[in-house]
Amino acid sequence: MPVSTIVATSSSDLKSAYDKDGHCSLPYRFTDGSVELLRRRVAAISAQTRPEVVHEKDSGVVRAIHGCHEFDDVCRALVSHPVLVELARTLIGGPVYVYQFKVNLKQAREGAAWPWHQDFAFWSQEDGMPRPDAVNIAVPLDDVHEDNGPLLVIPGSHDLGLFDLPVRSERTSDWRQHVSDDLAYTVSAERAERMIEERGKALILGGAGSLHAFHPSIVHSSSNNRSADRRALLLITYNAVDNAPADPTRPPFLVGRDTTPVVARGDERLVVEPA
Ligand code: SIN
Ligand code: MN
């Protein structure tokens, strides 16, 4: 069955799961060759000295790279991949553009945690995104298992609004505190525990190349990577075109300025197959 048919037939189930739980995993994946190509590009970018490359505070290893679709042709092709664009359009319900592109590398033994937080807290408070009408599409570039710091989400928490926002006068405007383990906008551990008692929690596990989506308001975290296996997670955030912030000030590699709708375009180097 062609992938476009799989996407079309699964899209209403995906949308129901996404609307109810705030996350879903997809029945298809990028091929090993596609993942290998992306890994090579990530390695090359990680070796560069540029503001888009962020390091762990303690160990100095690369924590994340940002905005790669603006300067790397494989990453540029990826954001236009028909499967990703169709999925984002289905989950958001209209034309989309690329708000953010990043790869969180979570290096073996060194990769640090992401405390409980909601992405929309950053995007609304720092950038002025009007509504959480965006979606994160996650593609692990390594196998993700319980011990290499998988994403942990609280199902259904995307529907409850934003929690624990700091008062305006105590906010930091340093974007580095939006990409470090010392996050500027967190949900308290006590609140997360109470929510988990009520709603449970879900680990986002999957092989390299698998595809997952999660909502900007879902409460999520991930732990330190204490294993011998790296856990690189590529994340593309698509935003509804009519939900673009009016006047963002954070760097363009954190907040995409080009709000032109993404046109789906296949690339023979990036191939999706049934999972
Ligand atoms: C992670 O890479 O584990 C965290 C990703 C996120 O918070 O969006
Ligand atoms: Mn997040």
From TrEMBL:
<keyword id="KW-0223">Dioxygenase</keyword>
<dbReference type="InterPro" id="IPR008775">
    <property type="entry name" value="Phytyl_CoA_dOase-like"/>
</dbReference>
<protein>
    <submittedName>
        <fullName>Phytanoyl-CoA dioxygenase family protein</fullName>
    </submittedName>
</protein>
<dbReference type="Pfam" id="PF05721">
    <property type="entry name" value="PhyH"/>
</dbReference>
<keyword id="KW-0560">Oxidoreductase</keyword>
<dbReference type="GO" id="GO:0051213">
    <property type="term" value="F:dioxygenase activity"/>
</dbReference>
